[in-house]
Design brief:
The structure is a single chain. By secondary structure, this protein is an all-alpha fold. It folds into three domains: about 200 residues, Growth Hormone, Chain: A (Up-down Bundle), CATH 1.20.1250; about 50 residues; about 220 residues, Up-down Bundle (Growth Hormone, Chain: A), CATH 1.20.1250. Helices cover about 80% and strands about 0% of the residues. The chain is globular.
Amino acid sequence: MTTPHPLTDGGRRRGQLVLAVCCLSLLITALDTTAVNVALPAVGHDLHASVSGLQWTVDGYTLAVAAFMMLAGSTADRIGRRRVFQAGLALFTAGSLACSLAPTLGWLIAFRVVQGLGASMLNPVALSIITHAFPDPRERTRAIGLWGTTVGLSLAAGPVVGGLLVASTGWRSIFWINIPIGVAALVLAAVFVPESKAATTRRPDPVGQLLVVTILTSLIFAIIEGSRRGYGSTPIIGLFALSAVAVAALPGYERRREQPLVDPVFFRSVPFTGSFVIAVTAFLVLSGFLFLNTLYLQEVRGFSALHAGLLTVPMAAGIALASPLSGRLTAARGPRPPLVAAGLLIAAAALMLTTLAPTTPWAVLLAAYVLLGTGFGLVNTPITSTAVAGMPRAQAGVSAAITTTGRQVGNNLGVAVLGSIVAAHTRAPDHAGIAAASHPGWWVLAAGGLVIAAMGLAIITRRAAAATATATATATRVATRVPTDPSTAFSSAPRMRGGAQA
């Protein structure tokens, strides 16, 4: 049986089927991330979870995704993208089933980690599969645009879908919905997705991977558990120290490798480093907001999960409307205008909530939701375009993969930091106490918005351009020593028009 040429009708139909399968995988992972936030109060009541337990319910998943995403991408290039993609679907689906049956909080967190391991094999690998399925640049751009639209719709629909499921059949149904979609995607992948590998692959870097896992795990554990055990306690200080030592050791070790997992040369580029910082900060803001807002609407205002999800629709609308505007603005004027505007809007939204109380007017809440959603919609596209523009084309896939990992690190830090602030400042379980305990958290998010705006101004200067030229020349020399398969140029997080990024 011959494979249809990519530009024939048969090739296009096959490509569309491949795209549909990949979008299904994205749908369940992105939907799961935001839907679970709405279910947190129900999980806490049912499994008698503390604030730190709810933090781990979210961060167990995102920590696994952040720690193993780059490893999954390089492994797929080496042993086969469809094989790793199917393994990720199977693991994510099995993890979802296990989460729905979890008898205790500890088991739920463990199964969330399993889900995260599966998700780490899906999104970056699926983008590589899409790139391979659409060799024509125009068709590839449209496919990636639809991919980005799926991300935005999934993030926006998550709270509403989650609220509907929790209100109708309980929090465990949040995970049930993943099972039929995951099984369908697994079968369709076996039938329609062709196997592909990179012509030239990077060698494994187990020590680099271990250092990345050590950095993230010890840091997140120290932040979350420090609010309960005390940040001055010996175990917590030891974990912070371990994370710092691993941070110091990683660049020194990676410089000595010909094919490092994380090349320190990339961070000599001011736009690349700036885009990484913005990615971490923006997703810290989003995940921190979702965590605080869920606790406020359900625990303080007494709304059901469904009502809480519906009240976030203005934020979702802001994301949906601002994302395509950001793509056009970035193409026409560069990344500075959308980044500065995004940072200022996010800061304004968070400042409106720094005096949050059980009686805060709805007009204030809804206005803040719209501002934050619009700001987040503006920030996402220029993150990837700036990261890719700051490095040579041959390194575009790797640079985008590191930035995508930064997004997941931000997701981890948002829940860890903001949840720990609430836990540390809550002295009584009354509604006013929880609302007041969130005030420092909103100030942190406001500061995050100002950081985004400042970075947007700083990364587009003459000095930054000179530093970038030097970094690009160095990275180009590295790229010529390690040939790169063109099909992996979008292996993790390519530039997208008008869409969000998972």
